[in-house]
Amino acid sequence: MVYRLTPERARLVADGLGVRLSGLSPAGADKGRTIFAVTDAGQPVVVKWLDRWGQWLPGAIGHSTQLLGRGYPTARIFAHGPVLGGYGLVQERLPGRPAVTGPDKAVLDEVCAAVALQSAALHNGAAPRCGDPGWMAKVVYGDTMGWWRAARERSPESAELCVRLAEWVRAVPRPELRADFVHFDLSFTSILVRRGRLGGIVDIDNLALGDRALDLVCLACQYEGLRFRDAPVPGPGDPVDRLVEEVLRISGRPGWRQAVAYNAIARLGWGGPHGRRDQLERSLWVIPRMMDRVI
Fold this sequence. Notes:
Blueprint: H1 7-16, E1 21-26, E2 35-39, E3 44-50, H2 57-69, E4 77-83, E5 86-92, E6 97-98, H3 105-116, H4 128-131, H5 135-142, H6 147-152, H7 156-170, E7 180-182, E8 191-194, E9 197-201, E10 208-210, H8 213-228, H9 239-269, H10 277-293
Antiparallel strand pairs: 1-2, 2-3, 3-5, 4-5, 6-8, 7-10, 8-9
């Protein structure tokens, strides 16, 4: 769970980490999860603080440090540690604005190149959840998080889709275990665009190990969600086709199915039986189309 930050509390977080800040302000439409600020040296930064989920942040930060060493376009961490009963961090504020309407082909190509850098992680003794490359399989085939159960309780339509989804993902052999870095929450809003180019990939709070194909599937589902809303899909070409091709190259058909199933039950089950109806309707529309993309 992410604490709803105010500028006043963000200042306390930064002070506790030994960083002096000025010009603190909420980060736009981010719903109070992030605060923008400037250090005494004039460096634009972002302040975050997590409560009970903060135990995973040291592992995610360790992974992001490895990725930075590979040239991955994410933010540098200036300070982090336990503070105010949770875990806080002060990180570089990258240039650009979130690609809320979806990255165009040029930026998507850059994102795919960045995801390629996530291949073959080096285990660094991070927290268990951040270091278990079998996490996705445990969720999909063993319901470790209880998302299958929660998804079945959302609605009769969701329960029916779960039956089809479970049969579909088990109709092929399980994919080979991969130990890539995985963002686990890659979305249009975590992709920053500046002057038509990729400015950076942010929100690495869930960065862990597994099959990086999941990140591409998450983006494919977002593009398909634009069609659900009759919103324009950035071109040229179909970005979902581009992402499907990349996922199949990385993990084959079994990897595609596992990633689609993971993303599906996370979306259906995360909010529990009382999740937002509009999000449920979009998921019920998108998921079957993702299943039908690869026979």
